[in-house]
Design brief:
- It contains 18 helices and twelve strands.
- It has 402 residues and is α+β, with helices and mostly antiparallel strands.
- Strands 6, 7, 8, 9, 10, 11 and 12 form a seven-stranded antiparallel β-sheet that branches. Strands 3-5-4 form a three-stranded antiparallel β-sheet.
Length: 402
């Protein structure tokens, strides 16, 4: 029972989560961003030789791994490549070409670098961490008076490893909040959207008054998302979809988790750190649990129809979590942004695939069977149903594991 592993009903769990786990990530990310701003202010536009004369270790930052080929100037694990691709600090293409050309004519590295300036550009990693940090800031602002805003982790620029150390701190803190390692993160991720009856079974104390009050204190507010259009109030209540309120702490934590997953496969990071694709590692750890939770023959109609709709490899439109080749996400095309592809509820049925109205939908099936099939994946954070309008929804689930 998850209640024994995830003590979501105890305040110590959330004190520890926000004051330690999430605070550590906040401090590491702010430290990284602060470091880059410091480096940008100090180095941007400054002559490379002048920088190296001040601090010799910058020679490795700018030229570490230089092999002198114009089509491939740096080796794969070149330190200079790390600083350029990850921090966006170093020599731009023109600067590198100029230096390589001069060296071919017999110049030493120092003379070849004469007149060449340091560039600072944005990178995918910097952009992702900036987005992540804005979400962390929003959470701690929402929880002002409940938890204290962390201070940034200071990174000392003392040798050529300063950038590696700053990013390693982010990766370590990020990994520590992923659902596979952090029970509180698993809990939050599992309630992005989920059938009420399944949440009640997974978390028996969830709907107790004291638990709901505790979660609300920490910005974790559940709401009704969707329900079947049927007259039986009791059945409607049991089979409704619940989830975190839009833009709430719960939704922001899920967003942060997806951001962190993406870091482990981004650009040059796997070349410099002993990291794994944490998203697919988590997915693989869930396969046996999913197979044990579903009797395939009972859902043959739902499965066959879901398998007919559009698929993608990515969990969201930012391409943050990409499945390995043997698995697919089936979904409302374009992540539900097009009304024509959204799911539609009518009575006790849902329609998916193409078609604006329920009657015109390609595939129709029982609402109860549809949500029952998705429920185990929702608990694991690998499927969702979120409303786009009354009786309309975007949806996604993982296939290929049956």
């Amino acid at each position: 029972m998850l209640d024994d592993k995830i003590k979501y009903y105890e305040e110590d769990t959330w004190k520890r989560y926000f004051n330690n786990d999430l605070a550590n990530l906040y401090a590491s990310v702010e430290g990284f961003i602060g470091l880059r701003e410091e480096i940008k202010a100090h180095l941007e536009g400054k002559l490379v030789n002048s920088i190296i004369n001040e601090k010799s270790f910058y020679r490795s930052v700018f030229f570490g791994g230089l092999q002198g080929k114009e089509d491939e100037p740096f080796v794969d694990n070149a330190l200079a490549r790390f600083y350029w691709e990850v921090l966006g600090v170093g020599l731009d293409r023109d600067g590198v070409s100029t230096i390589i050309s001069r060296m071919k004519d017999g110049s030493t590295l120092e003379s070849a670098a004469a007149g060449v300036s340091c560039s600072v550009v944005s990178t995918n990693v910097v952009s992702r961490l900036s987005e992540l940090f804005s979400k962390l800031q929003a959470i701690f602002k929402m929880l002002s008076g409940v938890v204290e805003k962390p201070s940034p982790k200071k990174v000392e620029v003392k040798d050529e490893n300063f950038g590696l150390e700053a990013l390693k701190s982010v990766l370590d803190a990020g990994k520590a909040i992923l659902p596979m390692y952090n029970p509180a993160s698993f809990f939050v991720n599992s309630l992005y959207s989920i059938p009420y009856f399944y949440a009640k079974e997974a978390y028996p104390k969830l709907f107790e008054e004291s638990t709901m009050a505790l979660l609300k204190k920490y910005g974790l507010q559940l709401t009704d998302l969707l329900e079947p259009d049927i007259p039986d109030e009791k059945v409607r209540e049991e089979r409704k979809i619940i989830g975190w309120v839009d833009d709430s702490v719960g939704v922001l934590i899920r967003e942060i988790i997806l951001d962190v997953y993406s870091l482990f496969t981004m650009d040059a990071i796997p070349s410099f750190f002993n990291v794994e694709d944490e998203f697919n590692k988590y997915v693989k750890s869930c396969i046996d649990q999913l197979r044990a939770s579903i009797v395939k023959d009972l859902f043959s109609d739902v499965i066959s129809k879901i398998e007919c709709v559009d698929y993608t490899q990515n969990l969201d439109d930012k391409e943050r979590c990409k499945l390995s080749s043997d698995l697919r996400f089936r979904y409302s095309d374009n992540y539900g942004k097009s009304e024509y592809r959204q799911g539609v509820i009518k009575g006790g049925e849902v329609g998916i695939g193409s078609g604006h109205d329920f009657e015109k939908k390609d595939y129709k099936m029982s609402y109860s069977e549809f949500i029952a099939f998705l429920a185990p994946q929702m608990l694991l954070g690998l499927a969702y149903i979120r409303p786009t309008a009354k009786d309309r929804f975007s949806w996604l689930c993982m296939m290929g594991w049956l």
